[in-house]
Specification:
The complex is a heterodimer. By secondary structure, chain A is of the alpha+beta class. Chain A is 24% helix and 30% strand. Chain A has four domains: 227 residues, Rossmann fold; 80 residues, Translation factors (Elongation Factor Tu (Ef-tu), domain 3), CATH 2.40.30.10; 105 residues, Elongation Factor Tu (Ef-tu), domain 3; 45 residues, no CATH class. The chains are: A alpha+beta, B alpha/beta. The structure holds guanosine-5'-triphosphate (GTP) and magnesium ion. Magnesium ion (MG) binds next to helix 2 of chain A.
């Protein structure tokens, strides 16, 4: 091939690379397992560290006792003075790098339990989690907590990095024991996509370069290969959603609704419904700075013009008519408590979701015990608790189920006293209006109970929908149900 | 009304489109949630990008908040010319603020040293300007990839009434749901370009044809060498030391600030394509030329805690 052609071909791979969306991933796991070191090493080995940064790193690194004379890679990430002094990560660091195949956005999160809120911050926007384990120590409660948070937030792809294997004699059996223990635990969370890699982050073994010297027995991909192969979820959901961020009124004759499409697609001529009012209208124009468009899809920041003057304000949802979000006053959700103050029952909080602030009362239902994996009934939440709650809104609210649309199914809770963000939450179901038990015939009642997943399938059935207003449904937990059923003879 | 310029552009690459969408979302969210926002405008390439995104975010409405330029009095003259031209062309509202104490006490980078000078003319000036305007939100063009403490900052970055940043106690920031609730006197700094890299900014400037100060492009210019930096010798206020000599060189700037503190780089990159090529193979980072970042380790975090952007 001539030089010119070769150059052209390189150009081509470069432009195809840019056509892939970047992969967003996090590192997580317990304190000191080597998360920051790993990302530092990854940046180092992918040549993302520039000369002046390298010089600064070498200057700042303390002399290590290990005799390897390597810089302290974690210092590339731990940028706060307090972090450098204590040798731990406190807050999440975002870094950007690319290889010839792909670009990456990585969030390096802290392992310390005290800073779980910052780990959750990183996890909320990630597609993949690298979960680190110190080979000598194995899986800890904090490892499980992080896996659980990542999974709850919708991360489906996991890389189990069994790190510091150099300090465990590159022991294959040890690696396999940890791998098995984790996949059993992961299965209970519904995590099935796991790649386990034995590695030494410090020396870069199985990070970018394969280590044949000590780990010839390992046949899987290196970390970078696994990252390059990861997939990205499609954001295209069925129903069109656009939460209104602001009303645009440059002059008397123009009124547009500005927001980002957070599901589905829209084109001029489409009929839409505005929630909560329920008023319908037709889209006349999709306006952007560059051009008037003939369609917009999830992710696009646009301005919509409608064919009639209706009362629409910030926080309203513009939705397709046939695939609407769930509308109601009561929802159930998974939640993670992020503040020292905890969450107390029956206190009025602010809930923010999709540019909307609403008043809500939170009813704690159950909290997970990380040791047993069981949900236990509870009446409040403490810092770092993960569990289930019921949300009671004063005004009608609308959501999608988080698994179906994370943008319209996620929320944060804000304490009105401190203005702090005290929890992150994911909608799991709408709580149906209770059928009036008084109308039931005394002798002919059947109580069904089944796992939530199955119940969801049942609720989707056409036949069930027809009679759903005659069925009383309550979400509960095993221990409560057991008590309940023991009262029935 | 806010007029678009070019209807015939090819569509943006997906990763730039994603970054643009995110920035527009942040602009709209802040404009809707806060009573009195302002946009910091430093005339550099990141500010130019930020301004372009703001125009896009609110179109067909004009930008619904003023621009604030903290003018130290020692900016490159080309920056001030460029700024004034642009403000006229886009009909923007600009507030230019210079710290009166600095003027009265004749604070200069030559007499007071770069650290004290920066503290008075930039950090203190910014605090004063924000207090003057009683702004409850201020947009800035900072990017996380610029520096290690920036990499830790939230998109809505909370500030106490005396403009302090507490990096150990930032609010969690999940998904793109930003918490804009503050008490009177407190404020938020909002960073729409958080997730952009230097290369993203240049690619976007190229794709969107965004006007930037000509000093970013290489040209034969007079310079002197001082403390290992190449300083532009066009300004009459630059006093030469006896051993310093003006040389002509092909240079450009990777970042722009105050002329006595901004180091130029030797470069042949005369247009954006060449700049992009140059940074892709660059072996040093963009902040290398900034005197204020080199004063001491962790100096950016310290300045930020004091209220610096
Ligand atoms: N021998 C050896 N040491 C390692 C390896 N990976 C990390 N370390 C060391 O482990 C220590 C902790 O590493 P960090 O990267 O700071 O750990 P971390 O997981 O980021 O810690 P937190 O963020 O505070 O939770 C450092 O002293 C590293 O040099 C490894 O593969 N082998
Ligand atoms: Mg760390």
């Amino acid at each position: 091939m001539s030089e010119l052609n070769l150059a052209k071909q390189q150009d081509l791979t470069k432009s195809t690379l840019k056509n892939l969306s970047p992969l967003r991933f996090i590192t997580c796991g317990s304190v000191d397992d080597g998360k920051s070191t790993l990302i530092g090493r990854l940046l180092w080995d992918t040549k993302a560290v520039k000369e002046d940064q390298e010089e600064r790193l070498r200057k700042d690194s303390r002399k290590q006792k290990d005799g390897l004379n390597l810089p302290e890679f974690a210092l590339l990430l731990d940028g706060l003075q307090a972090e450098r002094e204590q040798g731990i990560t406190i807050d999440v660091a975002y870094r950007y790098f690319s290889t010839s195949k792909r670009t990456f956005i990585v969030a390096d999160t802290p392992g310390h339990e005290q800073y779980t809120r910052n780990m959750a911050t990183g996890a909320s926007s990630a597609e993949l989690a690298i979960l680190l384990v110190d080979a000598r120590v194995g899986i800890l409660e904090q490892t499980k907590r992080h896996a659980m948070i990542a999974s709850m937030m919708g991360i489906k792809q996991f890389i189990l990095a069994v790190n510091k294997i150099d300090l465990a004699n590159y022991d294959r059996q040890l690696f396999e024991t940890i791998e098995t223990e984790f996949s059993e635990f992961a299965l209970s969370l519904g995590i099935t996509d796991i790649i386990s890699i034995p590695m030494c982050a410090l020396k870069g073994e199985n990070v970018v370069n394969k280590d044949l010297e000590h780990m010839g027995w390992y046949e899987g991909p290196t970390l970078l290969e696994a990252l390059e192969r990861a997939t990205i979820r499609s954001k295209q959901t069925v129903g069109f959603r656009m939460p209104v961020q602001r009303v645009c009124r440059p002059n008397e004759s123009f009124r547009g609704y500005q927001g980002t499409v957070s599901g589905g697609a829209v084109k001029p001529g489409d009929s839409v419904v505005i929630l909560p009012s329920g008023i319908k209208a037709n889209v006349t124009n999709i306006i952007t700075f560059d051009l008037v468009r003939n369609a917009a899809v999830a992710g696009d920041a646009i301005t919509l013009e409608l064919d009639r003057n209706v009362d629409i304000a910030r926080g309203d949802m513009i939705s397709s008519i046939d695939a609407r979000p769930l509308v109601g006053h009561n929802f159930s959700a998974n939640i993670i408590c992020l503040a020292q103050s905890g969450i107390v029952a029956n206190k009025r909080y602010w809930l923010k979701s999709s540019s909307k602030l609403q008043r809500v009362v939170v009813e704690p239902i159950s909290v997970i015990d990380l040791k047993s994996g069981q949900y236990n009934a509870c009446d409040s939440f403490e810092l770092n608790n993960i569990g289930k709650v019921k949300l009671r809104f004063e005004e009608e609210a609308n959501f999608d189920i988080y698994d179906e649309n994370p943008d319209t199914g996620s929320f944060i809770l804000i304490d009105p006293d401190s203005n702090n963000t005290i929890a992150g939450g994911m909608i799991s179901a709408k709580i149906e209006q209770v059928a009036n038990i008084d109308n039931f015939n005394e002798e002919e009642i059947i109580v069904f109970s089944m796992p939530l997943v199955e119940a969801k399938k049942l609720q989707q059935l056409e036949g069930f929908k027809e009679i759903s207003d005659k069925v009383q449904q309550t979400q509960t937990i095993k221990s409560k149900l057991r008590n309940l059923l023991s009262d029935i003879d | 009304m806010n007029e678009p310029e070019n209807h015939q552009k090819p569509p943006l690459e997906p990763h730039l489109k994603e970054l643009e969408n995110e920035a527009i979302f942040i602009f709209r969210e802040v404009a809707a949630e806060f009573e009195n926002p302002v946009m910091l405008y430093s005339v550099g390439k990141d500010s130019s990008t930020l301004l372009h995104l703001a125009r896009k975010a609110f179109y067909p409405e004009k930008i619904p908040f003023p621009l604030l330029h903290i003018n130290t009095g020692w900016k490159f003259s080309q920056m001030i010319e460029f700024r004034d031209e642009l403000i006229k062309r886009y009909e923007l509202e600009l507030i230019s603020f210079t710290n009166p104490r600095g003027v009265n006490e004749n604070v200069t980078p030559f007499t007071h040293g770069s650290a004290l000078y920066t503290d008075i003319m930039k950090t203190e000036a910014l605090r004063m300007a924000l207090d003057d305007g009683q702004y409850d939100a201020a947009f800035g063009g900072a990017r996380r990839d610029e520096e290690a403490s920036r990499a830790k900052e939230r998109i809505y970055s909370f500030r106490t009434p005396d403009h302090r940043w507490d990096p150990r106690n930032q609010r969690p920031e999940l998904w793109s749901i930003y918490n804009g609730m503050i008490k009177k006197g407190e404020s938020v700094r909002a960073f729409p370009l958080s997730n952009w890299t230097e290369s993203d900014v240049w690619q976007y400037i190229r794709a969107e044809d965004i006007p930037i100060v000509p000093l970013y492009f290489a040209k034969n210019r007079p310079v002197i060498e001082r403390d290992g930096m190449l300083i532009l010798a066009e300004d009459k206020r630059l006093e030469l030391a006896p051993n310093e000599q003006i040389k002509q060189m092909d240079i450009r700037f990777r970042t722009l600030g105050c002329f006595p503190l901004s180091g130029a780089i030797k470069s042949e990159a005369r247009n954006i394509d060449e700049i992009i090529e140059e940074i892709e193979v660059a072996t040093v980072s963009e902040r290398q030329g900034r005197a204020i970042d080199r004063d001491q380790a962790g100096s950016m975090e310290m300045k930020k805690r004091e209220g610096y952007f």
